[in-house]
């Protein structure tokens, strides 16, 4: 069980990391003090529309979602709770976001990318095998334990696997209000890409492709 003290400590550490990341944020610099997202707006812009400053309250700058562990009773054995502008309107235009990662024993966050952000991961509890693959197809992987920090460069394929003897928890910070996430297996086999493309790309039979697609 993650103690309140250790959880709060992880947040303080990530605040320091975020203060550094903000100087190199991938999102555009804000042009006013804040731009709390109007989640009810249907206007499409590069980001989220600001709601009226007169309607902004202190509650717009608070998010309680990371205090609660996610439900890891699923096929992957993991759950990611995001805190991006879509869930936390006060982050809009500020170029930062966070997420909580919960793992059952053996749980996996499958290989994925964040096209708009670098991610820094702080292990609150447990042991994780983490890694990313460079554009030269070189794997950089290691095991990180409670208190360790690991960074995933922007846009590169990466993963996290719980290799400890119990549950694990981590907190991620990203230098975008909307980092985006693309799970590679789901993108390839669950998006409707032609079977012929997948058969040729992976050297698989039609039957094998159909079997994998059935899982998505």
Key features of this structure:
single chain, 216 residues, alpha+beta, five-stranded antiparallel beta sheet, 4 helices, 27% strand, globular
- Report the β-strand fraction as a percent range: 25-35%
Widest sheet: strand ordering: 1-2-9-4-7
Helix share bin: 10-25%
Beta strands, count: 10
Structure explained in plain terms:
Helix 3 crosses helix 4. Strands 1-2-9-4-7 form a 5-stranded antiparallel sheet, with helices on one face. It has a 5-stranded antiparallel sheet with strand order 6-5-8-3-10. 19% of the residues lie in helices and 27% in strands. The chain is built from 4 helices and 10 strands, in the order H-E-E-E-E-E-E-E-E-E-E-H-H-H. The longest helix has 18 residues. A hairpin with a 5-residue loop joins strand 5 and strand 6. The chain has 216 residues and is α+β, with helices and mostly antiparallel strands.
Fold blueprint:
Layout: H1 4-21, E1 78-83, E2 97-103, E3 108-113, E4 119-125, E5 127-133, E6 139-145, E7 149-152, E8 157-162, E9 168-174, E10 182-183, H2 184-189, H3 195-202, H4 206-213
Antiparallel strand pairs: 1-2, 2-9, 3-8, 3-10, 4-7, 4-9, 5-6, 5-8
């Amino acid at each position: 069980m993650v103690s309140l003290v250790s959880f709060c400590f992880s947040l303080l550490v990530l605040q320091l990391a975020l203060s550094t990341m903000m100087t190199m944020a991938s999102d555009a610099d804000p042009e006013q003090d804040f731009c709390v997202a109007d989640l009810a707006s249907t206007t499409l812009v590069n980001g989220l529309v600001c709601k009226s400053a007169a309607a902004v309250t202190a509650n717009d700058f608070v998010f309680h979602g990371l205090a609660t562990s996610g439900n890891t009773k699923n096929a992957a054995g993991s759950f990611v709770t995001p805190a991006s502008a879509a869930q936390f309107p006060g982050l809009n235009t500020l170029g930062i976001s966070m997420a909580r990662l919960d793992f059952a024993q053996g749980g996996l966050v499958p290989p994925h990318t964040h096209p708009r952000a670098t991610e820094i991961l702080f292990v609150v509890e447990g042991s994780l095998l983490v890694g990313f693959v460079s554009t030269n197809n070189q794997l950089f992987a290691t095991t990180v334990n409670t208190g360790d920090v690991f960074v995933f460069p922007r846009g590169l394929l990466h993963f996290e696997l719980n290799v400890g003897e119990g549950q694990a928890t981590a907190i991620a910070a990203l230098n975008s209000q909307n980092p985006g996430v693309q799970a590679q297996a789901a993108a390839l086999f669950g998006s409707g890409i032609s079977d012929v493309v997948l058969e040729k790309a992976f050297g698989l039979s039609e039957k094998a492709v159909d079997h994998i697609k059935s899982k998505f």
